Amino acid sequence: MPVPKQRHNKSRRDRSRVNHKLTAKKLQKCPKCGTFIIPHRVCPKCGYYKGREVINVLKKSKNGK
Length: 65
Ligand SMILES: [Zn+2]
Hints:
By secondary structure, the protein is an alpha+beta fold. The chain has a domain at 34-65. The chain is 23% helix and 12% strand.
């Protein structure tokens, strides 16, 4: 396994960590029910994606009882 020969100084270490920050998730409005959803995911409220129902939310909640 390769081992670093010399320690990086603070500025070099911190320069590398500049890009480590997290960015907040962008939210989109669901065209069906209007709640904010993560893009490219099925809407958790109405179960719609790309204009059609992918999962039956009501049925799922019934079975969960
Ligand atoms: Zn929806």
